[in-house]
Amino acid sequence: MTIEISDSDGTELVRMSRKAVMQMLETNSKVSDSNFNTKFNFESGVFVTLNKKNDLRGCIGFPTPIKKLSNGLVDAAIAAATKDPRFSSVKLDELDEITFEVTVLTPPIEVKVKNHDEYLALIKVGRDGLIVERSFSSGLLLPQVPTEYGWNVEEFLCHTCEKAGLDKNAWRDLSTKISKFEGIIFKEISPNGDVLREQS
Predict the structure, then answer these.
(1) What is the DSSP string of 65-130?
(2) 5, 16, 39, 154 from 100: Cα distances, Å
(3) Is the dihedral of CA 171, 104, 186, 29 positive or negative?
(4) How far is CA 2 from each of CA 123, 130, 200, rounded to the nearest angstrom?
(5) Dihedral angle computed from the Cα positions of residues 66, 69, 70 and 74, in that order, rounded to the nearest 10 degrees
(6) Cα angle: 179, vertex 13, 58; to 5 degrees
(7) Per the structure, how many domains does the chain have?
(8) Strand partners of residue 110
(9) What is the tens place of the pLDDT at every residue in 163-172?
(10) Whole-angstrom distance, CA of residue 189 vs CA of residue 98
């Protein structure tokens, strides 16, 4: 599935993610913009990532298209700033040090194989994000993560398994479900600065 999002759309999404967090921190209310809601009135997975001086400050999202993009973006941005269990809630005076990044996701597709070695040819670093599921455990890593850490496909699979709370080699067991998706990534170059498209 192809999601068409222009560079200007991406800038709008990133600007709205920042606005949503700022309004929530200032007034404890959720931003509402009818033009934005109309423009992005289609279902899509989305993640919002906050970085402070190149360190992760929060990342929350919806891997599957269960919400309209307009609603999912606002909810993900607020949650990334206030509900990521790995971090304390972002403070208003921190926003000038934080860059916002939005990843719009294509629907996940299960990677079906007869032998686990086939995953290495079917998954591409830099293009694919991964979801690993087994029993009641699941973990997700966005497409930009293995690129940032310089991982190959096998390392990417191992780390996604660990994110799910599984043994790093759980991907070699065919009872583990592996799905992949693609992401369209837009990020601020500097806090409240210009927005660039990372990949499409």
Answers:
(1) S-SBHHHHHHHHHHHHHHT-TTSPPPPGGGGGGEEEEEEEEPPPEE---SSGGGHHHH--TTTEEE
(2) 17, 10, 20, 29
(3) negative
(4) 18, 18, 10
(5) 70
(6) 65
(7) 2
(8) 179
(9) 999 999 999 9
(10) 10
- Write out pLDDT tens, residues 132-184: 999 999 999 999 999 999 999 999 999 999 999 999 999 999 999 999 999 99
Q: Mean pLDDT, 10 residues at a time, over the chain (200 residues)?
A: 83 98 97 96 96 94 94 98 97 97 95 96 96 96 94 98 97 97 95 86
Q: Verify that 26 and 56 share a domain, yes or no.
A: yes
Q: What CA–CA distance (Å, rounded) separates 129 from 140? A: 8
Asked if residue 49 and residue 90 are part of one domain, the reply reads: yes
Tokens 């990949």, residue located? 199
Q: Are the beta carbons of 148 and 191 closer than 8 angstroms?
A: no
Closest CA to 17 of 62, 68, 81: 81
Contact (Cβ atoms closer than 8 angstroms) between residue 60 and residue 47: yes
Tell whether 44 and 126 lie within a shared domain: no
**pTM of the shown model:** 0.88
**CA pseudo-torsion sign 155, 158, 162, 167:** negative
Beta bridge partners of 179: 110, 131
